[in-house]
Amino acid sequence: MPFADVIGQEGPKRKIRTALAREAIGHAYLFSGDEGIGKRLMALRFAQALSCEAPPSSSQPDSCGHCRACEQIVSGTWPDLLVIEPEQDKANPQIKIDRVREIERHVIYRPLLSTRKICVIDDADRLTANAANAFLKTLEDPPEHSLFILVTSQPLRLLATVRSRCLALRFSPATPGQFEGALALKQAMATEDVRFLSQLCRNRIGVALRTDLSQLRSRHDRFFELCRYETLAHPTAVLQQAEELSKGQPFPDVIDWLSHGLRDVLLVTLGTGQDFLLHQSRIALLQQVAESLTPTDIVDLLDFLQTLEQAPTQNANLQLCLENFLFRFHQTIHRDAA
Ligand SMILES: [Zn+2]
After folding, report:
1. Nearest-CA neighbor of 11 among 40, 35, 57, 42?
2. What distances in angstroms separate CA 21 from CA 59, 244, 265, one per listed residue?
């Protein structure tokens, strides 16, 4: 399980390996970048490279992936590594001060089996103000043998004083090619499905691997159901659909698949190639919907949807918002039938 496991991220990888090669490792690193693109995985690979008991003899520092240290780091049982993360079951997950005390106890003693006591703090932006201030004290005067790796997709939410004490490494999403290659290695999947995930997960491999593809597909298929004339032909049907959607799915998800469906219709009206479509296999249906529409019609609907994005934060009636949209949507795409 060496560094090659982390897809892309050549910049951070190079910096870490250079630091390892020169034995010039800082006390604290800040890995920042989007959710699900390999930051935590890289932190574990870094810990493995530092602790591996049988490192491969290559020109670049790495780990073997199967010695006791490498395996226990992955299974979470390596005594010289502590991984801290927010309580997962809460609506507003936090890392509280008792976890910082745990960090202090972890790093105060010398490492048992390796040269470093490592602490990975995942979603470090979730440290409460109290916890962050307490942690700052440790960071200001870190034990010689300690290494902190802070992982976050929201670096600006960290205390500036914490940030400034870390070496910052910025992570970016994989390229479409890297994404497709990585996914093909993990699971057998049709090319169209890989493209579908690539677009919807914005090439974040971790996010794609956590996604239930069939559930995602069936959500997006709802768009085509709404496009059928009969689905929204009667006002009571519109009310019923709006109610079902507002109660059955998170509102942002509904806005998301509606926008993606409309975007495909827009691309068809613009005559761009099939390659750019999210729903490539639905090209015939998309063409049918797009037939009597101009790009402006679709842009208007997309604008309308965009204004709805703020609805949940404005305490708006979401069902009513969707009713308004669906009426307009139906009237626009079946203008000729009226
Ligand atoms: Zn190893």
Report:
1. 42
2. 9, 58, 52
| Amino acid, single-letter form, for residue 324 | N
User: What topology does CATH give the domain 3-172?
Assistant: Rossmann fold (3.40.50)
Please report, for the chain, the start and end positions of each structural domain, with discontinuous segments joined by +. 3-172, 174-211, 213-337
Residue 191: count other Cβ atoms within 10 Å of its Cβ: 10
Domain spanning 213-337, CATH class:
mainly alpha
Spacing, Cα 239 to ligand 1 middle (Å): 60
Please answer whether residues 72 and 41 qualify as being in contact, where contact means their C-beta atoms are separated by less than 8 angstroms.
Answer: no
Task: List C-alpha distances in Å: 273 to 198, 283, 284.
Answer: 18, 10, 13
Half-sphere exposure of 168 (CA within 13 A, CB side): 14
CA 210 to centroid of ligand 1, rounded, Å: 27
Q: Is the pTM of this model over 0.70?
A: yes
213 Cα to the center of ligand 1, angstroms: 34
SS3 call for 83: strand
Residue whose token pair is 């745990």 = 102
What is the whole-number distance in angstroms between the Cα of residue 65 and the centre of ligand 1?
Answer: 5
Dump pLDDT digits (tens) for 183-210: 887 778 888 888 899 989 989 988 998 9
